[in-house]
Amino acid sequence: MEDAMTYWSEVRIEEDRFEAARVLVPATGEELWVTAQECADQHLLAELKGRFVMHEEPMPYRVEVRVWSDQLEGPPAATAAWDTEHGFLRPSGTA
């Protein structure tokens, strides 16, 4: 069995297309038994569900999740995004 990985995630929310993104960053890493991409996907779905289903708030223009593994430096190991014009977006180079 593989060891859990430590991930740091950043959630970027743009309420509308003309506003700067609001960034939510956790203070500590999370130890999870998933890949970096699965972590990004889970955080994105949780943010969207929490906003729309649980609180019945209007959907933002764009939500993006960036995930780093092991340390919070350099480019993220995975990203996941959703916006009102395109729905779920995949980073370039993924299926």
Short description:
By secondary structure, the protein is α+β, with helices and mostly antiparallel strands. It has one helix spanning 36-54, and strands at 5-14, 22-24, 30-32, 62-69, 78-83, 87-89. Strands 1, 2, 3, 4, 5 and 6 form a six-stranded antiparallel sheet that branches.
Q: How does this structure look, described?
A:
With 95 residues, the chain is of the alpha+beta class. The longest helix has 19 residues, at 36-54. It has one helix and six strands; from the N terminus they run βββαβββ.
How would the global form be characterised? globular
Which residues sit in consecutive blocks of at least 5 with pLDDT less than 50? none
Number of helices: 1
C-alpha-based Rg, rounded: 14 Å
Beta-strand segment tally: 6
Mean pLDDT: 85
Strand content: 25-35%
Which class do the helix and strand fractions yield?
A: alpha+beta
What pattern of helices and strands is seen along the backbone? EEEHEEE
Key traits:
alpha+beta; 35% strand; 95 residues
Topology:
Blueprint: E1 5-14, E2 22-24, E3 30-32, H1 36-54, E4 62-69, E5 78-83, E6 87-89
